[in-house]
Amino acid sequence: MPADDGPSPAGRWHPRTFALTALLFAAVAFAVHAPGLSNKVFNSDEAYLATQAQVLNRGGRLYHDTVDRKPPVVPYLYAATFRLTGSDDLLPVRVLAVIADVATALLLAGEARRRFGNERAGLVAGLLFLGATAAYFAQDTQAANFEVFMLPSMVAAFVLAVRDRPLGAGVALAVSTLTKQTAATTLLPLAWLGWRHRHGDRTRLTTGWTLLAAGFVVPVVVAALAFGWHDFVHWVFTSNEGYLDANGVVGYVLHRGLVQTLWFLLANLAVVVLCVLAARRWRDDADLWLWVLAGAVAVASGLRFFGHYYLQLLPPLSLLATRPLLRAPARALAAVAVAVAVPIGYLAVPAYRRDDSPTQRAGRALAAYARAHTRPGASILVWGHLPEVYWRSDRRPATRFETTGFLTGLSGGRPPSRVGMQYAAPEAWDDFDADLRAHPPALIFDLSPADIRNAKYFPPEKFPRFGDYLSRDYHRIATVDGVAVYAPRT
């Protein structure tokens, strides 16, 4: 059935059917994400967000007292969760992430029922999506990352556009974009759906596109005004120029992209094969294929190819993979279920093992040292990339930067040797210097002697603006797990 046809009888949920489907999806979602239902850090982004949440809950301002190249929704989601639970534990946030997956699966199920006129389609689409959300490395699929919280509103935008609700679609996509910028690429299929609904009437087409644009732009502008136009635009959009730069490392980036993409295809082989089979009916699913293309653009943007970026591809791929299974026998459905379960068992289940990596041990040891040698409310500085120290110690970052990658240029998806003042985020060093003057840290942890997360490539002496400050105003007092600890001279 073409996507712009009216709702079929199967597309209208009976309350009992909806409730049972939601319970099934919840059971499956919590089962496949059981390895993540703990306080263990799977991804340093979580520790970064947790630290931001602590700053916000102490009255700090986003994009001023704590910064990141991300929109505002997820930091405040973490902060609200911490405040409501009275704990800075990651488990409640992970539970919220699983609920977001369930919401996304239900939206996909509703669209599949309407699109294919088949009650089975809803179950298949939702279960394929939930299985795919765990069929990758644990640090990408078990963490409460930006993409997980981006998907429900992104799928809602597509569902509304299919039903010719351009204003609602624009607003929903704006919410998704304020969660993660790459959601904005979904404007491509939304605009095309508007054209398909209204192309016979130029006036209605113009109105539809105008409503879509207004629904998308107005919430983003309101957010910019609420957070301060300069700071919001700088950190969410314009400060990404250096982050997107791949000059001199194209070979490294292409190799990384190829490896990550091959892992994604292998981990989701069942869904990929089903999508290939569905390609024979590509005209009926042109909107979904455009959505896949938009997701591929989002994954490739920035040329970083982190595993969790690929989550944006899962909603359209799950719908496409549903078509070949509409009338498949039980044996075929069982084979697909096994093909989805195997990579989950191989990639996700090992996450049950206790994480005792040197990096996490160092994070715990440094946090314990900070708690023992500073008073509550004191500020500390970690030179390097280990936001776990701030979060676990409950000590305030001395600067607005939870990691020094904004100053050194070090970041994932690039060779660790690609560091230097020329790769720093615009205005970052001026903000860093001002923050150090305003909040001199009670302790400074230099990760470079221990080479934690490639810190050996950016020792303080390589950056005189900080190295001179450190040697002039601080002296070394201890070594903890190879990390140099400094305290003020006076």
Residue-averaged pLDDT, rounded?
Answer: 93
Helix content: 55-70%
Question: Outline, from the CA principal axes?
Answer: globular
Q: What's the total helix number?
A: 22
Please provide a written account of the structure.
This protein has 490 residues and is mostly helical. The protein folds into two domains: 344 residues, no CATH class; 131 residues. Helix content is 58%, strand content 5%. It is built from 22 helices and five strands. Strands 2-1-3-5-4 form a five-stranded mixed β-sheet. A hairpin with a 2-residue loop joins strand 4 and strand 5. The radius of gyration is 24 Å and the shape is globular. It starts with 14 loop residues before the first helix and ends with a strand.
In short:
The protein is mainly α and about 500 residues long. About 60% of the residues lie in helices and about 5% in strands.
Give short descriptive properties of this protein.
490 residues; mainly alpha; 5 strands; globular; disordered N terminus
Task: Give the topology.
Blueprint: H1 15-32, H2 44-57, H3 73-85, H4 91-116, H5 119-132, H6 138-141, H7 146-162, H8 166-177, H9 187-198, H10 202-227, H11 229-236, H12 241-244, H13 250-267, H14 269-278, H15 286-300, H16 314-322, H17 330-347, H18 358-373, E1 379-383, H19 388-393, E2 396-397, H20 405-408, H21 428-438, E3 443-446, H22 464-473, E4 474-480, E5 483-488
Parallel strand pairs: 1-2, 1-3
Antiparallel strand pairs: 3-5, 4-5
Helix pairs in contact: 1-4, 1-5, 2-3, 4-5, 4-7, 4-16, 5-16, 7-8, 7-9, 8-10, 9-10, 9-15, 10-11, 14-16, 15-16
